[in-house]
Amino acid sequence: MSSQRIPTADLGDVAPARSRHQGRRSAVTLTDGFAVVGTADGDLQAFDVSTDSGPPRQRWQYDTDGEPSVVAAVPFDGGVVVGERSARGEIRCHDANGDLRWRYETRTDLGDPQQETRFLLPFVASLTAVGDRCYAAARRYERRTDDDGNDLRHFESVVYAFGPDGTIDWSHRTDGSPISIDADENRIAVAYNRCPGDHQHGLVVLDADDGDPRWMWDPGTDGQRRVGDVALLADGAVVSSHGDYCGYRLDSGGRERWRVPLATPTDVGGDTVYAYPNHVHATDNGAVFITGNTYPEEGRETDARHPSEHTAIGVSTDGDHRWDAPVGGFASGLGTDGSLLAVPGAQNFRDRDADDHALRLFDVVDGPIDTLDADGVVTAAAVSDGTAVAVEEPVVYHDEGRERGAYRLHRVGIAQLSC
Question: How far apart are CA 296 and CA 197, in angstroms?
């Protein structure tokens, strides 16, 4: 682990996280030597992180209105695009100086929230940009009751293709819950983690030109849970399955090349438990899957821990196990750059071990590179051109009552960590 003092920058005040993670409320991306942080109050702060010494220096700040939180951010067209979780579910594009270029409210298509409860707000779940297109997946969740009084989940969701001026070139609408997208010049892959309605495909690959589906895939399991994440490769895709807790390598067209168990149901002290594989990153040299919290097959509480919970698992191009390593807690997203992964470790809500709070760096082939310890929970990360940045948030665990950490940005050179 890295014990050296890492440069940080203050991000202001934020209510501390609690024992159970409350979903994403911060985001960070790297572009042209700047780290752009989307904060829990919806504002953007840009920091110069191009130097190897001293704390990141703030260059500009953009203040927004309402009560949003920025949950996604990607570089685009010399600036940055960000997505909110808010009553408006806004997608905004800013230039390199922070000035607003264009904005779009996804509630126009998703509808207004059923209530002003956080998880019922329109949510920009994922953003990615390729060339002169920015792609966004947004959703809104609501609860419904059928004629028999049963509580039902319902989603409204849209995948958008935006041009540089904010024009919507096409959109793709379903009643599934998109969680992640990946794209290249020809395809957009959309992972749906829940499918409670008419849409019954965990993965849909769309044509970049018009948004029409090219092919679809599903783990074929019972229930609403389907796919946690997707990574495109030149000749197919790699997906993490929420349906059967496995990882899959798919050829173009959705044919399965291999399947690897990741955190499948396992008996631990008489309790059968599993963990969802929430993230995947893949290159031509292999793939890395990241698993999440332990859950029991019966009920919600358990003293058991799945042996592969909160774990990074590296596999070869043929699906052979290469390495595995802990990630400390629930990771809300990944920072990636070629073969590098930056994994933010937030709450392990069952064990609540503050010693595990960290940013962990991995290589697709070789595994762990190093660890940046943090007092609070690490909730967002990005890596590019040898620089890693991470957002730390303060946390108070209910059975401890002590506030740990602060709302701040960490910046470190990869070579520094490895020294």
Answer: 25
**CA atoms of 299 and 277, how far apart (whole Å):** 20
Check residue 159 and report its DSSP letter: E
In the numeric block, the tokens 């389907």 are attached to 226
**Is residue 13 classed exposed, middle or buried when 0-12, 13-18 and 19+ CB atoms within 10 A define those classes?**
exposed
Other CB atoms within a 10 A radius of the CB of residue 321 amount to 11
Instruction: Produce one character per residue of 289-314: b if its CB has 16 or more CB atoms within 10 Å, e if not.
Output: bbbbbbbbeeeeebebbbebbbbbbb
pLDDT score at 2: 47
pTM for the whole thing? 0.96
Give the C-alpha separation, 163 to 165, whole Å: 5
Burial tier of 171 (Cβ tally within 10 Å: 0-12, 13-18, 19+): middle
CATH architecture of 17-174: Beta Barrel (2.40)
- Nearest partner of 277 among 227, 221, 336, 205, judged by Cα: 227
**What's the pLDDT tens digit per position in 19-33?**
877 789 999 999 999
Distance CA 105, CA 192 (A): 21
